[in-house]
Specification:
7-stranded antiparallel sheet, 2 helices, Multidrug-efflux Transporter 1 Regulator Bmrr, Chain A, 132 residues, alpha+beta, 23% helix
Amino acid sequence: MKLKIMNSIRTNNFNDEHLMQKITDLWQEASGLLDNQKVITYAVYHNYESDYKGDYSLSITVEDDAGEPSLKILNNAKYEIFNVDTTKEHGVYDTWKEIWAREEAGTLERAYSFDFEKYSPNGEIEVYIALR
């Protein structure tokens, strides 16, 4: 999959007191660049320092088969897919809490390569977690 990066941040889930504002600002900036296009948009988590408690990069991207990719995710990677309950206000965050809990319990062995949230034009959201 070839993805064009709209914008990125470097952050941490637990040590960044401005995390929610940084992510909100990131999405607002990306929305302005998308010009209301009906495209699949991805929030890609990459360049992990360690595990989910360490620093990582978060990039808002769109599929771009026409140009040079600014981020390339291997299609042969193995992923577990989590469907987000979009009827809940914090559905994405709740999904991540489930992922972290499964990892802590030892029932999810993450690769920490490229994880991503897939935002479809129809409103569906899926979280893809790379597995070892």
